[in-house]
Amino acid sequence: MxxxxxxxxxxxxxxxxxxxxxxxxxxxxxxPASPSGFDGTNSASPPVPVEADRIRVVNTWPHDHGAFTxxxxxxxxxxxxxxxxxxxxxxxxxxxxxxxxxQQVTVPSxxxxxxxxxxxxxxxxxxxxxxxxxxxxxxxxxxxxxxxYDGEGWGLTTDGQSLILSDGTxxxxxxxxxxxxxxxxxxxxxxxxxxxxxxxxxHVKGEIFANIxxxxxxxxxxxxxxxxxxxxxxxGLLPSAERIGTDVLNGIAYDAAGDRLFVTGxxxxxxxxxxxxxxx
Length: 280
Hints:
Blueprint: E1 4-5, E2 13-17, E3 19-24, E4 28-29, E5 54-62, E6 69-75, E7 78-83, E8 90-95, E9 101-106, E10 113-119, E11 122-127, E12 132-137, E13 143-148, E14 156-158, E15 163-166, E16 171-175, E17 182-187, E18 189-190, E19 193-194, E20 198-204, E21 207-212, E22 217-221, E23 228-233, E24 249-255, E25 260-265, E26 270-277
Antiparallel strand pairs: 1-4, 2-3, 5-26, 6-7, 7-8, 8-9, 10-11, 11-12, 12-13, 14-15, 15-16, 16-17, 18-19, 20-21, 21-22, 22-23, 24-25, 25-26
C-alpha cells in the first residue's frame, strides 16, 4: 500500500543555521517503500541545524509495533492514540508503562485515521482524505457524531478553546468545537519562508508543537502569529538498529500536570519521555 499526499504548491520545510539554510520539496508517501521509511542513508532527514533544541531521554516504554501512530494524547495517566492505514485505523487507550491496549474501537476500513484531540469530555479524531471527523465519548469511546472539514486531515490538538487542525500545508486552522466552523487560521513561516508538511500537533505551554513530516524534527510554533519559534531535534532518538520495519517520527503528547513530553513514531516499538535541552 502506498500513501501519497500531493499539494497545490511545492512543500517548503525550513531549517536554519543562523538564518534559512535549506528548503527541500516533495510529496508524501507514507507506507514506506523501504522498511524504515528512509533509504538507508537517512536522506529524508535533514542535516542537524546548529540552533535546534536537542532532547534528553527521561524514560523509555514499550509501544505497539503494529500501531501506525497518527495522533497521541495524554489523559489521566494513560495515552489516547489514533492509528492510521485503511483497514487498520483505530482509536485506543494505552497503558503508558507497558504499551498495553486497554480499550479500542475500530475505524471503518474506508477511513484512514489521523489526528486526535481531547476536549470537554470528548475525543475528536480526523481522517485523511474523507473530509470527515468523529466525535467520541472520552470514557466509553461511544461514537456520538461526525463532522466535516475542508481539505485533508493530518494533525489535531486543542488549546482548551478551539480544535487546532493541520492539513499538511503551511496552514493551521482553529475550529469551533461545537460547530466546526473556522474561527481563524495562521500560516506557519520562518523568516518569511513557508513551513509545510506540518503533521501531528500538540499544544505545549502556549505553543503548538508540530511534527514536520518525514523528518526527525518538531517545529515550535507561535499560535498567534504562525512564526516558528524553534526546532526540536530528535535525530537518533530511536536507534538505527531499531528503525527496521518502522516509519517516520510522529506522535506528541504532553502531560501538563507533570510537565512531561512524550514522543513516538509510526510502527515504533518504543515511546519516549523527553526533556528539552535548550541550545547554547
